[in-house]
Amino acid sequence: MNRRFVTAITVLASVLFVIGESTGCTSSPIPDIDCPITTVKVGETVHFDAGLSIDGDESGYEIRAYEWIFPAEAYNISGKNNVKAKCKFYPASSSGVYVVTLKVTDDEGWSSQTTVNITVEPALSTTWYVKPDGDDDDDGHDWDNAFRSIDAGIGSAAGGDIVTGAATVILAMGAGKIAAKSIIEDIL
């Protein structure tokens, strides 16, 4: 074999090896969703954890960004750009299967995503919260997001639902006083 030819191949192989070593192995990260409970009732909190997501190469790079993508039926979302997130599904939602997506990005800008299906079953009843300092533009699903008016709570309720809160108590006391007065008038 020609000595120049062998030298050229050796030099070319060395250059390729050095280039491969200097840039490292480039691979997309591997997202992982830990969601212990994937079947919930409407209004129950669902917890997600991406802590087991890893960078796909062995170059020492890390996951730098987490992005959770929730369906429109999700509310009370927290941790949308963190390793851990949680949400609930609206009582008005139809029961069904909803997809939650996790997108992870590593130090090199490579990203990939995965999904988990959450099965939402109807709740037997929903409690709607009302308080004097609430806001009728809130969702009424807990004390922090309570409605202001009893009408908003009743308007959101369906058969079997419960509307509770300070305004309900005031109305009930008023109705109780009227009923008691009527009974007294009937007796006398």
- Radius of gyration from the alpha-carbon trace, in angstroms: 29 Å
CATH class of the largest domain: Mainly Beta
What value does the average pLDDT take?
74
Q: Kindly estimate the percentage of residues that lie in beta strands according to DSSP.
A: 25-35%
How many helices? 3
Distance between the termini: 126 Å
Instruction: Kindly state the number of beta strands.
Output: 9
User: Largest beta sheet, briefly?
Assistant: 4 strands, mixed
Question: Could you please say which CATH topology of the largest domain applies here?
Answer: Immunoglobulin-like
Task: Please write out the topology.
Elements: H1 3-23, E1 39-41, E2 46-49, E3 63-69, E4 74-78, E5 84-89, E6 96-106, E7 111-121, E8 127-130, H2 150-156, E9 162-165, H3 166-187
Parallel strand pairs: 1-7, 8-9
Antiparallel strand pairs: 2-5, 3-6, 4-5, 6-7
